[in-house]
Amino acid sequence: MDPHRIADDNEVIRSALINLKNVTGIPVTMYGEVAEPGKLKISHWVGLRTPALHDLLVEAGAGVGGRVLATRRPVGVSDYLRAKVITHEYDEAIRDEGLHSLVAVPVIVNRNIRGVLYSGVHSSVRLGDKVLEEVTMTARCLEQDLAIADACRSMDRGGPGKSRRVMNGAEWEQVRSTHSRLRMLANRIEDDMVREELEELCDQMVSPVRVKQTTKLSARELDVLACVALGHTNVEAAEEMGIGAETVKSYLRSVMRKLGAHTRYEAVNAARRIGALP
C-alpha cells in the first residue's frame, strides 16, 4: 500500500474515532480496515483496556464486524457473549477486553467496503438508537473524508513515475480556514467586480474535490456556513457579515432544512460532503 495513503488515512480515521467518542461519550471506538478480501483487521482503536483486540483479524460473516462485512449493514448487540444474531469465534478476545455492548457500521467508499466503524462499552448498558445514529453519521463523514483524500492523492500525482507531496490534515484544515476567511473578506468588499473575483476564488478552492451537489445553497447561506466553520457564534457571524443575528439564524435554519442537519456543525459537515465547502 502507498505509504502516503497509510499516513493520510490513519490521521482521518483516528480523528473520526476521537470525535465519535467525544460526541457520544461511549468509551471504546474502533476501526477495522479491509486487510484482504473477506477479512477485516482491527487497525485503529481508542479506549481499549487490553491488547486483546489489537490487530485482530475478523473473517467475513464472523462476529459483529464480520457480519457487517458480509451484509454491508449495521449490526448491534446489547450482550455480545449471549447474542444470537452473530457467531462467536471471537468471544475469548471480547471476554478478555471486557466488552459488553457493541455496534458496528460499514464504511463504504466508491461502492466498496473500506472498513467497519465500531463503538462499544464495557458495562451492561444498551446502546440505543441515538448512539447508532451518531456512529452511522460518523461513518458517513469518514467515507467522505476518505473519498476526498483519495481524490486529492489522485490529482496530486504528477505523471508517470512522479508523485507530488500530498497535504496532511493540518494543511487541509488551513485550506478550509482560508476558504472561510476569503468568503468573509468578500462580504466587506463594496466593489462588485472584486467581490465576484474573490467568490470565484472560493469556488475554485472547492471544485477540485466537488462531488455531485444535489442541494443548492445560496451565496449568503454559504457565507453563514463559512462563519460557523470558523467557530463563530451567531452574533459574531452577524457582525462579520454586517447583518442581524436573527437573519443569521434564518439562514442557518434554511441551510439545516436543505441539508437535513440537526445542528450547525452537522450542517457544515453536510455541506462538505456535497462539495459546497472544502
Automatic annotation (TrEMBL):
InterPro entries xref list: GAF, GAF-like_dom_sf, HTH-type_RamA-like, Sig_transdc_resp-reg_C-effctor, Tscrpt_reg_LuxR_C, WH-like_DNA-bd_sf
UniProt-listed CDD domains: LuxR_C_like (cd06170)
GO terms for MF: DNA binding
S-adenosyl-L-methionine as UniProt keyword: no
Signal peptide: none
Keyword terms, alphabetized: DNA-binding, Transcription, Transcription regulation
Keyword Transcription regulation: yes
Pfam families: GAF, GerE
Domain of life: Bacteria
GO BP annotations listed: regulation of DNA-templated transcription
Domain called HTH luxR-type: residue spans: 210-275
NCBIfam families to which the protein is assigned, alphabetical: transregRamA
Protein name: LuxR family transcriptional regulator
